[in-house]
Design brief:
Keywords: Cell inner membrane, Cell membrane, Cytoplasm, Membrane. It is found in: Cytoplasm; Cell inner membrane. The protein has one domain (about 5-205): HflD-like (YcfC-like). The protein is built from twelve helices and no strands. It has helices at about 5-30, 35-45, 50-55, 60-65, 65-75, 85-100, 105-120, 130-145, 160, 165-185, 195, 200-205. Helix 2 (about 35-45) crosses helix 10.
Length: about 210
């Protein structure tokens, strides 16, 4: 397994983790902090040396992305039937949406500028998951990606999705999923790999 394949597996794990957390939020109104925090931090980690560093560093990224790695292994292995269909749909939608985003350089530039603003704002709070930080990321998603013709259609319990703090978390995690999808593509990932390189992806995830 090459370093590129290893880092692709890390990015894909983050995509699937974001997808599953969105599903959890939409259905129950909540998601585990320990699985959400690394994704939120990844959005604010702009200048990293490796995929490992984006998700907590050499010693922590495996634990931080354990949920996404498990779901990705199920998806590309023999246990695909065990994967929540909504999680799989969100993951594929995130990859598709990121592919669409590439055609809008002005929007990409706007997102980059907003991330820098939110990064500076986050320095005033001890917690990257402070409601103001989450709201800032959610607002960025709503002002940019939500305006594209293709959108990630989130389905769940309206009692939760209509609550502003839940809606903000959903949008923030979707942005984290886009960040992971972009990283995967920058590392050489292609959408056709998800079908025709399943064995190689599974090997990298197992490693």
């Amino acid at each position: 397994m090459s370093q590129q394949e290893k880092h692709q597996a890390i990015a894909l794990s983050a995509v699937f983790q974001a997808a599953d957390l969105v599903s959890q939020l939409a259905k129950s109104g909540g998601a585990p902090r320990e699985e959400t925090l690394p994704l939120i931090k990844s959005i604010l980690t702009v200048n990293a040396n490796s995929a490992e560093d984006i998700y907590g560093g050499q010693w922590d990224y495996k634990q931080n992305l354990s949920l996404g790695r498990r779901i990705a292994r199920q998806t590309f292995g023999k246990d695909r039937a065990e994967v929540n269909p909504e999680t799989l749909r969100y993951a594929l939608s995130l990859v598709h949406l990121e592919n669409k985003l590439r055609k809008y350089p002005d929007m990409l530039s706007a997102i980059g500028n907003r991330i820098q603003q939110i990064e500076r704002q986050s320095e005033h709070y001890e917690d990257a998951m402070h409601e103001n930080v989450i709201a800032g990321i959610a607002g960025m998603y709503q002002d940019t990606l939500s305006t594209l013709p293709f959108r990630v259609q989130v389905q769940g319990d309206s009692r939760f999705l209509q609550q502003p703090h839940v809606a903000n978390q959903v949008r923030a995690i979707l942005m984290a999923g886009i960040r992971a999808s972009m990283l995967w593509r920058q590392l050489g990932g292609k959408r056709w790999h998800l079908v025709f390189k399943r064995k190689a992806l599974l090997k990298a995830l197992d490693a």
